[in-house]
Amino acid sequence: MNIWHRLHWISATFCSLLLASCFWWWVGKAAPIADLPGVATGERLQCVSYAPYRRGESPQLIAKDFEFAAVRLDEDLSLLAKYFDCIRIYSVAAMDNLPAVARAHHLKILLGAWVNHDALDTQIEIDHAIRFARANPDVIRAVIVGNEALLRKEVTPAQLIAYLHTVRAALPGVPITYADVWEFWLANREVAPAVDFVTMHILPYWENRPRSVRHGMIHLEYVYAKIESAFPGKNILIGETGWPSEGRPRRNAAPSLRAQATYIRDFLALATQRGWQYNLIEAFDQPWKRGNEGMVGGYWGLFDTDRHDKHMLAGDVSNFPEWRFDLAFCALCIFLLMWMGARDPQRNQRPAWQLVLPSVLCSLALTFHARQSWFGVRAPPEGMWAASIFALAFFSSAALLHDWKQYRRWCVLATVLSVAVTALELVFDARYRSIPLAGFIVPIMFSTWVGWRNENSLSVPLTPPSPQRERVNRLGDLLCVAGVCLLIIERPSNVMADAWIACVLIFGYTLRARTHAVWTGWRWRILSCFAAYGIASAIRHGLMESVSLVERCSIAPDFAWCTIRDTIGMAIYFQIFSRSAFVLLTLALITRRQIFAISALPFAIVGLVLYNVTPSAIALVWALMMIA
């Protein structure tokens, strides 16, 4: 490589880095948001939800006899006491040191007693809460018996009322309430006479019809008026309201730091104007909640998990406050992609300037995928999956930029399989899964480009047909169906979801069969899959999520259907259906008999419907690739 050629590549790389720097500086700028006058003068707000868990901690990982140290609680409450005069906790477990610390910081406590399906655990929790409240009457503002237990269908209204009466009898003079989403108060009005005031949750992001930040206050006023008219004479506490700073958009409700700050400040101004009682969710980010609620569940805090201020209450706000780290990672990706081009003999004689903008765009996609993975990964398997997608995106970027024909076949095959699995995950578990658009945009574009160029690749149904191509074509049809299902689920609502659906449909159309049938002999196989889907749906809605059966089982746990429900629940917990599919597919691989792969299809379908989504999606794609 001569000196002029080398300078050519160096100057192109410098221009790419300059473009990336301008982009990250622009998106990282802090935007002004109107401050609250009271916060600026040191006036304390009402209540905020508090949990002391930090990075790597969760309620599931603490021992039963564990107690949070007073030193840790003091660190947290000394920060919260600057802004609030009350904290809400959801359980008394491990909180025996809290009252003394709250007293020292002049904080009141909304004391929560966690209610679940296990009557013994619930009774232990309630007894603990009663002792807690009796020993600290000066700091207890009210006792909240249960949190969204009706929403989770873990108890019946009659059981909940009995728990409320138990606490009321043990704590005369202490206000008693129950907390749930506003719709469940309207659906279970018989609970209202058992409480002193109604504690309702209003979370516009989580509504069945999500509301944007712009329409959030209108929705709040509408819901408040509806609850007020439904329970005349009852005081109302907005027990939870807030907005997430990270996570997937739900229609036009998009999480971001600016959106969260705007919502919080608009709500506090409205609540002050209307004279509402409220509790914000929540004090600190709680990453452990991602296990149940997806990525978005971990990022509702006014402060992050390390107790750093997110500037939700005052000050300008940037959606990318750590944009310099993002820029550094993006610059590394640009350097590697351009270096690969400079070292590739096939590209040495071509102008490097044509790669300036493409290298920046590919590196931005890689950076956004890495950022999403940083916030969203919950366990090592998810980390491995995210790393695999990153590797696929990186090599697809290199193959796209530098015309690496030797990597095309493997990049396309890996893209087909991973996109199929991800599309199935989003179809069967759309509510809590982030859309991995940044990680897949380059591999999908590269594979589609290869397909439409009619290259000798797995992505195009060339003639004469081969079993291998037919299997990939079959996945193309699956992607088309998944794309249509996602369009129905998501509806045209936000850019990320719309772009993902468009990518899946275009990619599926590129893969699907155009010149020959690939479903010959599949009539009975497809019928068996539909039958498995119907049976699994009946089990899910008729047994696992049946409110009437929950009530019946609470009264007569030995009832036959309750025993069946418990058995199926154990099978779901141990992932029996997806694991059975994997066993059958392993047998098919060892014996080379397709009957085992065909038998795995219904098990994979049942697992998809019954909550074992990811392993079942992998099993289904594996089965489709094995069956000729």
Outline the structure in words.
The chain has 628 residues and is α/β, with parallel strands linked by helices. The chain has three domains: 266 residues, TIM Barrel (Alpha-Beta Barrel), CATH 3.20.20; 135 residues; 104 residues, no CATH class. The chain contains 23 helices and eight strands. It has an eight-stranded parallel barrel, surrounded by four helices. β4, α6 and β5 form a beta-alpha-beta unit. The protein starts with a helix and ends with a helix. About 1% of the residues have low confidence.
Layout of strands and helices, then pairs:
Elements: H1 3-28, H2 37-40, E1 45-49, H3 70-80, E2 84-88, H4 98-104, E3 108-113, H5 119-135, E4 140-147, H6 157-170, E5 176-181, H7 182-187, E6 197-201, H8 213-230, E7 235-241, H9 257-274, E8 277-280, H10 290-293, H11 323-343, H12 356-376, H13 380-402, H14 408-428, H15 437-452, H16 467-490, H17 495-511, H18 523-544, H19 547-555, H20 560-573, H21 576-591, H22 594-609, H23 613-626
Parallel strand pairs: 1-2, 1-8, 2-3, 3-4, 4-5, 5-6, 6-7, 7-8
Helix pairs in contact: 1-11, 1-12, 3-4, 8-9, 11-12, 11-13, 12-13, 12-15, 13-14, 13-15, 14-15, 14-16, 14-23, 15-17, 16-17, 16-23, 18-22, 21-22, 21-23, 22-23
What summary fits the major beta sheet? 8 strands, parallel, barrel
Which CATH class of the largest domain applies here? Alpha Beta
Percentage of helical residues? 55-70%
Structure class: alpha/beta
| Percent of residues in β-strands | 5-15%
Rg: 28 Å
At the third CATH level, what is the topology name of the largest domain? Answer: TIM Barrel
Could you report the average pLDDT, rounded to the nearest whole number? 90
**How far apart are the first and last residues' alpha carbons, in Å?**
49 Å
Overall form: globular
The number of distinct structural domains comes to 3
Number of helices: 23
Low-confidence stretches: 456-464
Question: Which superfamily, in CATH terms, is the homologous superfamily of the largest domain?
Answer: Glycosidases
- Count of beta strands: 8
Order of adjacent strands in the largest pleated sheet:
1-2-3-4-5-6-7-8
CATH architecture of the largest domain: Alpha-Beta Barrel
